[in-house]
Amino acid sequence: MDLALAPETLARWQFGITTVYHFLFVPLTISLAALTAGLQTAWVRTENEKYLRATKFWGKLFLINIAMGVVTGIVQEFQFGMNWSDYSRFVGDIFGAPLAFEALIAFFFESTFIGLWIFGWDKLPKKIHLACIWMVSIGTILSAYFILAANSWMQHPVGYRINEDRGQGARAELTDFWAVLTQNTAVTQFFHTMTAAFLVGGAFMVGISAFHLARKRHVPVMRTSLRLGLITLIIAGLGTAISGDMLGKVMFKQQPMKMAAAEALWDGEAPAPFSIFAVGDVDKGHNKVAIEIPGILSYLANGDFDSYVPGINDVNKAEQEKYGPGDYRPNIPVAYWGFRWMIGFGMASLTLGVIGLWLTRKKFLIAPGLRTGEDEVPNLVLFKNKALSPKIGKWYWIVALWTMAFPLIANSWGWIFTEMGRQPWVVYGVMRTSSAVSPGVSQGEVLTSMIVFTTLYAILAVVEVKLLVKYVKAGPPELTESDLNPPTKIGGDTRDPDRPMAFSY
Amino acid sequence: MELHDVWFVLIAVLWTGYFFLEGFDFGVGILTKLLARNRPEKRVLINTIGPVWDGNEVWLLTAGGATFAAFPEWYATLFSGFYLPLLIILVCLIVRGVAFEYRAKRPEENWQRNWEQAIFWTSLIPAILWGVAFGNIVRGVEIDRNMEYVGTFWDLLNPYALLGGLVTLTLFTFHGTVFVALKTVGDIRVRARTLAVKLGLVTAVLALAFLIWTQADTGDAWSLAAMLIAAVSLVGAIGAIKAGREGWSFALSGVTIAAAVAMLFLALFPDVMPSSLDPAWSLTVTNASSSPYTLKIMTWCAAIATPLVLLYQGWTYWVFRKRIGTQHIADAH
After folding, report:
1. pLDDT along chain B (333 residues), means of 10
2. Same domain (yes/no): A225, A247
3. Final residue belonging to a domain, choices A329, A348, A382
4. Least CA distance to B185: which residue of chain A?
5. Reported ipTM
6. Rounded to an integer, what distance in angstroms lies between the CA atom of residue A233 and that of residue B82?
7. A236 and A365, same domain (yes or no)
8. Closest residue in chain B to residue A71, using alpha carbons only
9. Which of chain B's termini has less CB crowding within 10 Å, N or C?
């Protein structure tokens, strides 16, 4: 079957759908693993039961989420070969290594220790059980590093040479693996992705805690969770802003086209303005409407308000001279709006965190009468002597709940921007996306798999969200005898051979 | 022995690990219909692999990733060529993973029954398809001068490959039944032993036919030796389970899987994907492999990481060494 489409169009749609979907689960998994591990550490150290209840509550949501992350991740590793076989042939010498490292080091870590953690409550002494969730957390972070190093190589290839004399078609070959792992693109992108991941987890915790606190339920656990969530949100939000600025500066140098497209800056300017709003005319190569702040873009690109920033038309011309005739512009509206939605939704979450932390502060600039105990819903205190009225205060909880997904939207647009902003290249300056697809796979096959995955993913999304809602509403579980008396021996205590397992599928 | 030969062996080791570990996982999934009489027994079965199935499946991801890194051409030809079977396998693995995690998370009858159906089918189908895939790899498929698979989906369903599919299906189910006998207590354990003997005999007939066919087609002295080891250990595994020696039986069914994988890889070498159109167009360990530098880095990584993985995965089995029965499954979720 042949459709009137470019050979790469369907394969790109499929990659986009499966990857954005996969990445809905990834940042929440990364952040919730570490946050759950932190809460469990607090339980082991203080023996305060609210921490164990919090661990069990967030841990359950984490497990529902990671299950989806794991299974959708399998597709990611297989589809390079399935839909992008010419890409795999050309870059496998380089791109395959971080993927294999990821499987061998990170995936084994994650999946083995997650099993120990889920089933280990009555089989492992407290501290060893705690170590397991930390191992999972380390696994998720290592996994992120390797895959981001691989992606960074596509953004900015380093440490390789093109081998033309193999007698079977040229390919890129690795010459310096250390350079691939440590180039500034990889390091900055890792920093940015990590902080953005914790933004997701922070907002998730704040939103769900707000849901319960607004109803005055499970107060001690949710009060602690709210605070942890807010602090995470703020640190991660600031980190995302800082790393985003760093990554932007790196990209202005390595992929000027992507950044010019992000700003709809058609022609180079010195100083260059930051665009607030623009409606462009792609065919004519200029904006019809533009609202701008002068000088800011120059600063973002180079740390200097007056410097020159090249525009879309300039870079396009330069690339035509370098790589031959063609259109080297990505989809400008997607890059422009993707960039704005990424920043907008991300920073809205940070703002919510700052407001929340101020309103729920414990002692700083609060009249003694407004302070609350650990088992009370915190007053939302605006000024020293003045709390928000319940009517207005209620809105903070509602907004916190409904903006829970903002960082996820920001993460998705961040990836759509960075991947679509690199087009028409799959490996910047080295390989075009149009020459990366599998020549032997028909469009009918790609279409089939795209429909199958999209349908399956849609069904699973409904199942997963419903399950999350059920367990969110149920709140933290009551602790059992067995929870409070963890075993002292590996393999569990053997007093009663018929005692039911603490957890079973 | 050059590095690409080392990696050929390592890829074989990774597939052995995968078939050994997820082999019994698939078997356990299939037994939920074959052996379990009621829901508590189904849950006993699922929980024998509960803590370990996820780690077991990573052997597949590692085999895939390592093939990508060490033999990019092999990865590209195989994954784009066997497109639809791989799609089916992927769908199964996705649904199966979610089914294990979500089945007990709601009490409704419909919910639990649907996920149980899913566990059975998504274990059965990949158990067949892996055999079909490997049958085709060993037999050779239509690969053109550009290393592209030019056959169709239906070409993959030839008698030899389908027999391979039946072999993996029965062998994994047998392996899983022995595993269940080793990991459970009570009535289900007794029935698992009896069933294992019957399954073992069916497996033996099919596996022997398949291995002899392979030996006649592409075998040499080495593959013959591997074949004999596979045959002897399979007979041993059946005898051991009949005699109630579950541990021995499990070890021997593991050896059977390892020897069978070894035989297929020995029959392949030095090809990794032979072309049925022209032997000159076959993918081999030399023309499909990565550069020596990449292979060197990968070798270091594998040399350090693999023993560690074996160590902590082995430890996991030790932590969960206790047999389980229906009395160990709590009602509440």
Report:
1. 94 97 98 95 96 96 96 97 97 97 94 97 98 96 95 95 98 98 96 97 96 90 94 97 96 97 94 96 95 96 95 96 92 59
2. yes
3. A329
4. A498
5. 0.95
6. 45
7. yes
8. B94
9. N
Q: For chain B, how many residues are written?
A: 333
Which of B79, B146, B329 lies at the smallest CB-CB distance from A81?
Answer: B79
A157 DSSP assignment = -
Regarding whether A413 and A277 lie in a shared domain, the answer is: no
The domain in which residue A273 lies consists of 256-329
CA distance B24 to chain A (A): 17
Long-range contacts of A300-303 (CB under 8 A, 24+ apart): A300/A245, A300/A248, A300/A249, A300/A252, A300/A274, A301/A248, A301/A249, A301/A252, A301/A259, A301/A272, A302/A249, A302/A252, A303/A249
Backbone angles phi, psi at B281, to 5 degrees: -95, 5
Residue of A nearest to B97 (CA): A71
Using the Cβ of A501 and the Cβ atoms of chain B, whether some distance falls under 8 Å is answered with yes
Strand partners, A387: A381
Provide the whole-model pTM.
Answer: 0.95
Question: Is A497 domain-assigned?
Answer: no
Instruction: Establish if A445 touches chain B: CB-CB under 8 angstroms.
Output: yes
Q: Report yes or no on A397 lying in a domain.
A: yes
Residue A2 counted as domain residue: no
CB contact, 8 Å: A94 with chain B?
yes
Whether residues A462 and A413 share a domain: the answer is: yes
d(CA B283, CA B2): 17
**Co-location of A304 and A367 in the same domain:** no
Mark yes or no for CB contact B147/A499 under 8 Å.
no
Within this chain, do residues A236 and A306 fall inside the same structural domain, yes or no? no
Contact B329 A500 (CB under 8 A): yes
Render pLDDT for B209-257 as a digit per residue (tens, 0 to 9): 999 999 998 888 999 999 999 999 999 999 999 999 999 999 999 999 9
Residue A148 lies in a domain: yes
Q: Distance (Å, rounded) from C-alpha A252 to C-alpha A106?
A: 32
